[in-house]
Amino acid sequence: MKESYLGKVSLFFGLSLLFLSGCSSAPVRVEIPNAPVTDEKKASILEENLGSAGYYFMVLNFKLVDDVKTVNRLNRIGARLAHYTERPNIVYKYFIIDSKYRNAFSMPDGYIFFTNSLIKTLGDDEKIAAVMAHEIAHITHKHALQSYERLKGYNPLRSILGEDVFRVATELGYNQAYELQADQTSLRYLYRAGYDPQSAFNVLGDLKKIEEEDEKMFKEDQAQKDKKAEKIERKFLDTHPYSENRIVNVRNYLEQVYKEEKVLYKPEDFNF
Question: Of 12, 69, 130, 151, which has fewest CB within 10 angstroms of its CB?
Fold first, then answer.
C-alpha cells in the first residue's frame, strides 16, 4: 500500500473537524458533558483483539519508524496524561508512521499512531500533548469500540479484520459528538497533567494551514497514481474539513475546565 493511503485519514483523529450546523453556519457551542466511565481495569478482551488486528494491519501496510528517542518522548508525555484519566491502567502504545502527511489516530487497547511529519510540525511537548490527549480521550470514551460494534454488530465468534478496525479508527471524525467529547475531555486531561489546555486551542489554530498544505500534496500525488489507488485514497481527502466550530467550542470550554479541574501533576510521581 502506498504512503498516501493514509492521506487525509485524520489530523488528530482528531485533527478531524466538526460540522455542528453545516460549514456555512455561524460557530455555536454544543455541550457534550458526559465524562468517560471510570474503569481501573485494563482493556477488555474485545478491545485487545481489535487493537491487535488494527496494529497488524498497520505493520503490513505502512512503514513504521524505528525511532527509539522519539517513541520514548511520546511514552513520557503519554504516561503523564494517562495517569490522570478514568482509565489509567490501559497500556498505551505509541508508534510513528513514516509519512509526509500530518496525521494521528488511535485504536482500541491504547494504540496511538503519529506520522513523523506531524511530530516535526508540532514541535514542542505541549502541542504533542494536546494531540495525544485527544487520542487518549477517544480510547477512554471507547469511541472506536462503539463504532465497530455498530458497524459489525457484537458477535464473539466473528473474525476481526484489521482493515475494519483501521476504517473505524480513521472515520471517527464523521461523528460530531465523539469529536466534541474528545476535545472537551482532552482539555481536562491536559490541565490535570500540568499542561496548558490552551495548547489544544493553539494546535487547532494551526490546522487550516496544515490541511491546505496536505491537500496540495495529496492532489500532486494523485496525479501520479492509477485510478484504482485514487478511488481508495479519495475517501480520506474530504473527511475532515477545517471548521471554526471546533475552535470556538474548545475556546468556550476552557473556562469551565479551569473552574472545575485542578492540576494534579507531581513530577516525583514519574521517573523517566
Answer: 69
